[in-house]
Amino acid sequence: MAPTPLTLPVGATENSVRVHPVVLFTITDAFIRRNQGQERVIGTLLGSISDGVVEVKNCYAVPHSESNEQVALDVQHHQTMAQLQHRVSPRDKIVGWFSTGDPDASRSRDALIHSFYGNECPNPVHLALDTSGQGGRMGVRAFVSRALGLGGNELAREFLEVECEVRSADVERIGVDVLSSELQDKLPGDMEGLAESFERLQHSLQQAQAYVDAVVAGKQKGNTAVGRYLAETVAAVPHFTKADFEKMLADQSNDCTLVLFLSKLIQAHLALADKLGTMQLPLL
């Protein structure tokens, strides 16, 4: 009788993971709000996969309990959150799971959790977030797994680390800069943000005016690309008369006031309906 072959199939084709900053903030918030005595938090990763690159865009924590070599997940909570997330963002799907703590700590329970998410998506990714704060930074590592089988039966599962990077869009980068500023006492309001935008715009206009004046005076050699860009920028600015601009501003202000009035009116009706126990939204 021929001996049973020992097989080690490659279980994952993903070779890199990209994580959005909102994922790290959500995981950190879940870790801070964890139950007393809970060692770590775990949860589900949402995103997309393209050309072997897993892009993690969102996540949510899943309640669980661990004891010795056993782990229990709140599957109902996981399924409910997955359905709600699908309604909000249909393009995002489950791509793996996350955990906090030391990623080098070997836990047999991780294989059980990974097997569960293997039923939710093919080749799930494990994102490990080091919340110990050693070295003044928060380490992020990603792992995929492959199975060691004997005669078609899985005997063990090995985790392999893959490249992981935190990548943010322009809008996300603004929020990250605000939250990472050590001198920021509070988040800027709408008027403060608008004032800062006007300051940056004024500074850019001053630089452009100084450049144009220097070129016209012959003090600096003009750049054709810069001149074309300035001409296109000026041409893109809409031209309004003073009366038209004041009318447009007044109309927009009236529209905002009307929307604010209707929202306050609906809020008052909802509060009254709540007091009466009807909770029926009246037709306006």
C-alpha Rg (nearest Å): 28 Å
> CATH superfamily name of the largest domain?
Cytidine Deaminase, domain 2
Instruction: Indicate the percent of residues in helices.
Output: 40-55%
Main β-sheet description: 7 strands, mixed, barrel
Query: How many domains comprise the coordinates?
Result: 3
Strand order of the largest sheet: 2-4-3-7-8-9-10
Low-confidence stretches: 1-12, 278-284
- According to CATH, what is the class of the largest domain? Alpha Beta
Question: Architecture of the largest domain, according to CATH?
Answer: 3-Layer(aba) Sandwich
- Could you say which overall geometry the principal axes of the C-alpha atoms support? extended
Figure out the total of helices: 7
Total DSSP E strands: 10
Structural class: alpha/beta
The helix/strand series, from N terminus to C terminus, equals: EEHEEEEHEHEEEHHHH
How far apart are the first and last residues' alpha carbons, in Å? 83 Å
Named CATH topology of the largest domain: Cytidine Deaminase, domain 2
Subunit structure: Component of the eukaryotic translation initiation factor 3 (eIF-3) complex.
GO biological process, one term: formation of cytoplasmic translation initiation complex
Domain MPN: 17-149
Main location: cytoplasm
Element layout with pairings:
Layout (H helix, E strand, L loop, with lengths): L5 E2 L8 E4 L1 H12 L9 E9 L2 E10 L1 E4 L2 E4 L1 H14 L4 E8 L7 H13 L4 E5 L10 E11 L2 E14 L3 H11 L9 H27 L7 H13 L5 H35 L8
Parallel strand pairs: 2-4, 2-10, 7-8
Antiparallel strand pairs: 1-9, 3-4, 3-7, 5-6, 8-9, 9-10
Organism: Chlorella ohadii
Subcellular location: Cytoplasm
Family: Belongs to the eIF-3 subunit F family.
